[in-house]
Design brief:
single chain; 183 residues; mainly alpha; 8 helices; elongated
Length: 183
């Protein structure tokens, strides 16, 4: 028996709200969730973020500096804002809202790269991933999102992987895979 079936019984007047709650508790029924839709939403968020980055990259010389920055910031904030609205205000498209938050977090990384390209900032590559991780590290707790938690862990792992292989790193693996201290 599905949650929606029990709800239809109550809507038809065949059972009371108390009886509905007892049936749900007895059979341990959870709200219906479409995992396929959730997976497609997350894949879509990643592809949209990548498409936006590619669109900017393909038209790099034509787009003015201010427009690039405004578009990047607007898209990132728009994704987070619309995701919040779907999850918290409407509360009926929670997975889609979570996917938009994920897209906004990925767009934050794209914006870091965008600013680095616009102003020709040449720094250590691990620093960009550290900034990305620092910028999204609080989102799993603010949004109560497992997907954001996984993304924050992924960002930290990417930063650590880059950092451990950087020549001027405090923690670096040499050819024998021994940890060397920077001296």
């Amino acid at each position: 028996m599905k949650y929606a079936d029990i709800q239809q019984l109550q809507d038809a007047g065949l059972i009371t709200g108390e009886q509905r709650d007892k049936i749900i508790a007895h059979f341990n029924v959870k709200e219906d969730s479409n995992r396929f839709l959730a997976i497609i939403s997350f894949v879509g968020a990643v592809l949209v973020a990548a498409g936006i980055a590619l669109l900017i990259a393909a038209n790099w010389d034509v787009i003015p500096r201010g427009v690039k920055l405004a578009a990047g910031l607007g898209l990132m904030l728009g994704a987070h804002g619309f995701g919040w609205w779907l999850r918290e205000v409407r509360q009926n498209y929670r997975k889609t809202g979570e996917a938009l938050h994920l897209g906004g977090s990925l767009l934050f990384l794209a914006n870091i790269a965008l600013v680095g390209q616009i102003y020709n900032i040449s720094t250590r590559p691990p620093n960009a991933f550290l900034l990305w991780w620092a910028g999204i590290a609080v989102l799993p707790w603010l949004l109560r999102s497992k997907a954001q938690h996984l993304l924050a862990l992924l960002a930290f792992g990417i930063w650590f992987g880059f950092e451990i292989n950087q020549e001027d790193s405090l923690v670096r693996l040499n050819d024998e895979c021994q940890v060397l201290a920077y001296s």
